[in-house]
Write a structure and sequence with these properties.
Strand content: 5-15%
Shape: globular
CATH class: Alpha Beta
Low-confidence stretches: none
EC number: 1.5.1.29
Largest sheet: 5 strands, parallel
InterPro entries: Flavoprotein-like_sf (IPR029039), FMN_Rdtase-like_dom (IPR005025), NAD(P)H-dep_reductase (IPR050712)
Structural class: alpha/beta
Distance between the termini: 15 Å
Keywords: Oxidoreductase
Protein name: FMN reductase
Radius of gyration: 16 Å
GO molecular function: oxidoreductase activity
Number of domains: 1
Order of helices and strands: EHEHEHEHEH
Strand order of the largest sheet: 2-1-3-4-5
Helix content: 25-40%
Number of helices: 5
CATH superfamily: Flavodoxin domain
């Protein structure tokens, strides 16, 4: 039976480096894995009134329901994110908040998660990854251990077609995907 991995890209720009990196990562999954980008661009801003049973005049947006259903039907999550102002982009934080409610049915709970951060500078999105890990720790989401993936100077890693070409970087990313797959397999076995 195929495993589903939802890939969330922390940039809404069509030609973003994060999206290009995500497409490379999707190609590294083995047979039997369906990894695909789940778009977060059209998710309304999170508002607890939508989930508050005491508020009757603000129904939960259908985009929330569909997003939560997709996440809950996933065997794993893969976050690929740039760093914006030393933290995660607001669109990604919004998606995390939407998946975190209602409290009785959190979409993220116990799902294995991979994280790749990047930046055009030398820090590789360290602050965004640190903040993302902090948010995800609340949901008991296991992640692959060391080494983590911080891609610095990301534009230099991609050719004109958006492919990662440096062999050592390709091997490093393939190894990370393999470790995430192993975590997903272990999590599936324990259910």
């Amino acid at each position: 039976m195929n495993k589903n991995v939802s890939v969330l890209v922390g940039s809404l720009r069509r030609g973003s480096y994060a999206r290009k990196i995500a497409h490379n990562l999707i190609d590294y999954f083995p047979e039997g894995y369906n990894a695909r980008i789940v778009e977060i661009r059209d998710l309304p801003l999170y508002d607890f009134d939508y989930d508050d049973p005491q508020v009757s005049d603000k129904p939960t947006p259908p985009e929330y329901a569909l997003f939560r259903k997709i996440i809950k039907s996933s065997d794993g999550i893969f976050f690929v994110t740039p760093e914006n102002n030393r933290t995660i982009p607001s669109c990604l934080k919004n998606a995390i908040d939407i998946g975190s409610k209602p409290n009785s049915d959190v979409a993220w709970e116990n799902l294995p998660a991979g994280i790749v951060s990047h930046s055009v500078g030398r820090m590789g999105g360290y602050s965004s990854q640190k903040n993302l890990r902090l948010a995800l720790s609340y949901f008991n989401m296991p992640t692959p251990g060391q080494p983590e993936v911080f891609l610095s100077q990301s534009p230099t890693l991609l050719d004109a077609d958006g492919h990662v070409t440096q062999e050592s970087t390709v091997e490093f990313l393939q190894n990370y995907v393999s470790r995430l797959v192993q975590l997903i397999e272990q999590n599936t076995d324990s259910r």
